[in-house]
Amino acid sequence: MQQYFHSVRLDEEKCKGCTNCIKHCPTEAIRVRKGKARIIEERCIDCGECIRICPNQAKLAITDCLEKLKDFKYTVALPAPSFYGQFKPEVTPSRVLSALLALGFHDVFEVALAAEAVSWAIRHYMEVCVDRPRPLISSACPAVVRLIQVRFPSLLEHIIPIESPMEIAGRMAREQACRKTGLEPDEIGTFFITPCPAKVTEVKQPSEGRSSVDGAISMAVVYGALLKRLEMPAPYPVAPRASGVGIGWGRAGGENEAIKAGSLLAVDGIHSVISVLEEIERGGLTDIDYLEAQACTGGCIGGPLVPQNPFVARVRMGNLVKLYSAGEPGDFPRDFDYYRLKTPIPARPALTLAKDPQVALARLEEAERICAELPGLDCGSCGSPSCRALAEDIVQGYARRSYCIFELRERLQQLAEEMVELAQKQPPAMGRDWKQTRDGGGETD
Amino acid sequence: MQLKFQVKGMDFSRAGQAATKIKKALQLAGMDPATMRKAIIIAYEAEMNIVIHAYHGTLTANITPHKVEIIAEDVGPGIPDIPLAMQEGYSTAPPHIREMGFGAGMGLPNIKKSADELDIQSEVNKGTKLWAAVFNN
Ligand code: SF4
Ligand code: SF4
């Protein structure tokens, strides 16, 4: 079986085992053991919450580096829509795109352009497939898709079966590059400039066989490298092709603005997303046609690998959307099959206590019992996110009761009392009353 | 295994919590997603019915590998005409509850749609007992 890849990792050197991160993880994927945070791989959805919360900067995202460009004859940069919002107003999208060429890419394909195409596909699907369960849920944020796979498997059928703008951008970029250069498809490297670790995982371990994107480079890294090149002359100037509709996808609410059909709901921030998904799970929100859901507060401009302050980026994005609102919709295939997800997204039952339901139920019962006996303070000192989670860890054999410092203290107290009692029993030579008898004698009480 | 929760009438701040706990248990037990979904809808609607209509009651889940039973028992006004209450949109919830977005008269119909087996017994001015089962395939 393929090992599960996920992008978010721990820097062992920096981790102090402070337990700050364990409580913020939406899938309870982190435990602190031997003074270090461990991520339970199959539970991690790469939302990046732990990267944001870690006071020691010990959580990091594995991304590709710019060196990887050398592996291909011809490379295309795929800037995420949120990338446009990172620069001062005088740094126009055209300058940003041109500077990407100066950085070493041969060409640029805007993901915002693919986002316009995907907006069309979503509208089309909503019109044609009226019988699908409502609300349909966006497939654009991979952290949300993984969250549903792990925590809300019964909502998988709500996810709209359409590829994300990034995937579509990779595909369009490769086709365009093949036409331009006459090279073979695998001689062309497509590189997404990513705001988040979740997109890295989508590239490295997509839900379908292979991603159309060859690498994902951190937006912060590209931003740093690009600042120096903004003044350099580009091999040729690039004019942005995306209009405000596509650029707007980079911030919360932008996707819905681009769809503009039916009743739409937008939610951002992983914990808010969870509460809306819970509502849908218990049968609610059937009056909503489409749910835009983004793991990051503010949308992708709030991504963990984004350099600019998200509030500043939000204003800049808003201005760009207005500035480019008059743009003509781009040229893209009007064939729905081009955008359709080919295979259903599978569930990831990473939260069950055992594979066999009989065993799982027995463990569940045991966990309930243990949980009732634990102090219920959810202090995190045991290394598990809550008393409840510790009980679940214990029944699976991943933890012991003595990990609970309150239980440990109680036991130490008992032990201490016994020791005091023992200590009071002085030996006869130190003055204890002694009654001499023929067979050796004994203490008088 | 059995989970049992007390539910108070009109306590909207905690409404839905029992259903959420039942969901978590079903997930830990590795129930099929479809079973989970049906059981959650039943548990939630049954819990809300107690909150909206009754004085107090209990929500119970009996979980086995093959079946989930949800039982809601309440002390309350009871349902005078069960077939009528089963009709979509029929509601006896007072206007102030409806203004909160609850009591749209979909509770029982939703339960009926999700349950593989259903039994409702009610006595006016005494209370209601709802029993629903979902089979886990
Ligand atoms: S990235 Fe998200 S899911 Fe993964 S360990 Fe961190 S907080 Fe948990
Ligand atoms: S909201 Fe955007 S940046 Fe954040 S995890 Fe989802 S796709 Fe990535």
UniProtKB/TrEMBL annotation, chain B:
Q: Which residues form the Histidine kinase/HSP90-like ATPase domain?
A: 16-132
Q: Which Gene3D superfamilies match?
A: Histidine kinase-like ATPase, C-terminal domain
InterPro entries recorded = HATPase_C_sf, HATPase_dom
What's the name of the protein? Anti-sigma regulatory factor (Ser/Thr protein kinase)
Q: Which organism is it from?
A: Desulfofundulus luciae
